[in-house]
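Standup notes, protein team

Yesterday: finished cleaning the Haloarchaeobius amylolyticus set.
Today: DUF2892 domain-containing protein structure.
Blockers: none.

Input for DUF2892 domain-containing protein:
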Amino acid sequence: MQNNVGSVDRLVRLVGGAVLVAIGIASIVHILPAGTIVGAIATLVGVVFFATGLTRFCLLYQLLGVDTCKAP
């Protein structure tokens, strides 16, 4: 697997993923009034974002031919 997630994109994914996981967990345990289903979806999306930030590889980017590692 070749890296296709650049450094700025990676930082956004890591921070955004962590925030979504925190919001999702807070919703699941009823700290936030968003609801359990919304919390589960936010947690899942956050985990995927965080994982793609860690691995620097995004399958959707590969399918669409997007590569944020390369300079324009």
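Follow-up from PR in the comments: The CA atoms of residues 49 and 63 lie 16 Å apart.
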